[in-house]
Design goal:
By secondary structure, the chain is mainly α. It has one domain. It is 81% helix and 0% strand. It has seven helices and no strands. Helix 2 runs antiparallel to helix 3 and helix 3 runs parallel beside helix 5 (113-131).
Length: 190
Amino acid sequence: MDKVIEILGAIFGFLAVYFTIRQNIWCWFFGLIQVMLYCFVFYTSKLYSDMILHIIYIFLQVFGWYSWKYGGANKDTLRITLLTKRILWIGLTVFISILVGYFMDTRTDASCPYIDAFIMVASLVAQYLMIIKVLESWFFWIAVDVVAIGVYAYKELYFTSVLYVLFLIMAIFGYFEWKKAYNQKLIYES
């Protein structure tokens, strides 16, 4: 049964990223199903930071849907923007990853506590930046995907590893699609 849940989670995860690249609001529906399934997968694999991440993702899926549907706080169409203060975002990601990793290492029987913590923290940063349509969110996703592929293969979550290989490819593609849309917006506004 664990493998069936993992396979279904992988299918819905693929659909979520596919629709995200297309800037289609259905990404949030498929993402919601995926994250609920993966809460179970990561709990049974003792990847507790990932499990916590997916619990948080449940709420972020709803927030993401709302932001994309209603354009965020300004009630206008949400447009792709560029990240400011990149060093701050990267530094914050590393610092919080170390803190969460230390907690998981000293307080739980977590498997791969520091790497799993990085996956959690960098994913939350990427998810937040994606919700507000920041182009560089894809760079955070690429970093998460590269690290996650190894961790999930190590934990024998092979379907999830394959999913993250696909996520990596899709994140690279997503970056270029969003960059193209951003550049078209600049041309249109000129």
